[in-house]
Write a structure and sequence with these properties.
The chain has 288 residues and is α/β, with parallel strands linked by helices. Helices cover 41% and strands 14% of the residues. The strands form two sheets. Strands 3-2-1-4-5-6-8 form a seven-stranded parallel β-sheet, with helices on both faces. Strands 7-9 form a two-stranded parallel ribbon. Helix 2 links the parallel strand 2 and strand 3.
Length: 288
């Protein structure tokens, strides 16, 4: 039995759909009905909460491998509770989704420090583990979809700063590989990136070409970026994300890593390929 947390998030949803049909799958969700509707997979869906240790122990009973995705950088209790329950339930292996910034000494923002501590908790847990450390998701650019459809405009910061963003489908494919063959990946940490570093302005050009319409790129100031983040996140998280974005101006997020190709035996998907699959969300035709 494989258990997935974060089943309503991008990666968890993709993993659920990619696991072999013969593999028993259990989804842990605060809202089981929503998770079942979003995933639509051959999966058992169970209710549970990271703040409810008893629900975690029930969900983890009989599980041999689990994908751990936590999203609240203001607490480590979620990871602590899950790992305690996993030990008590005899789980064999934990695959943890973190971030590539944990490997960068100059990354000291709140979110990165939170993920570093989560990794430390896992390594100290006594459980078998694998770490997946992706760079930024290509799907983050879906945040541009509304302004592209309505105005033909992309508003973003750091237009000329390259990032080796990754297609979430590649993260999911790697996760499936590790979850179904944990013995081959025990104690490994994988840096996951796309095949090339691409700037926001280049992404805008790619989208414009695929949409067959010119798109305008508007550079946001630091204050505008922070204001937008504060509208979506608690202040400590918003400031951490702004700090991380500013750090990327020094080129730290442009390094391409070979892990996706090595693990999957094929090249990582590029931004043009990702965009073509999601063009309808930007106002273009649906992918065939």
């Amino acid at each position: 039995m494989i258990l997935l947390t974060g089943a309503t998030g991008t990666v968890g949803r993709l993993v659920a759909r990619r696991l072999p049909a013969a593999e028993p799958v259990r989804l842990l969700a605060r809202d089981p009905a929503r998770a079942a509707a979003l995933v639509g997979a051959h999966a058992e869906v169970v209710g549970g909460d990271f703040e409810d240790p008893a629900s975690l122990r029930r969900a983890l009973t009989g599980v041999r491998s689990a994908l751990l995705v936590t999203v609240n950088p203001l607490t480590h209790a979620h990871d602590e509770n899950f790992l305690t329950a996993a030990r008590a339930s005899g789980v064999g292996h934990i695959v943890k989704l973190t971030t590539l910034s944990v490997t960068e000494p100059d990354a000291t923002d709140l979110v990165t420090q939170w993920q570093r501590e989560n990794e430390r908790l896992l390594r100290a847990s006594g459980l078998s583990w694998t770490l997946l450390r992706p760079r930024a998701f290509m799907s983050n650019t879906l945040g541009w979809a509304g302004s592209i459809r309505a105005e033909g405009v992309v508003r973003s910061s750091d237009g000329t700063v390259p990032t080796a963003a990754i297609d979430p489908r590649d993260i999911a494919d790697v996760a499936v590989r590790v979850l179904t063959d944990p013995e081959s990946h025990t104690g490994r940490a994988y840096a996951l990136t796309g095949p090339a570093a691409v700037t926001p302005m280049e992404q805008t050009e790619i989208l414009g070409e695929l949409l067959h319409r010119p798109l305008e790129f508007v550079e946001l100031t630091d204050d505008q970026v922070l204001t937008g983040l504060l509208a979506r996140y608690p202040e400590p998280v918003a400031r951490a994300l702004a700090e991380s974005a500013a750090r990327g101006r020094h080129g730290s997020k442009g390094q391409v890593e070979p892990s996706v190709t090595e693990l999957l035996g094929r090249p990582a998907r590029g931004y043009r390929e990702w965009s073509a699959e999601h063009l309808a969300e930007f106002g273009g035709p649906a992918a065939r």
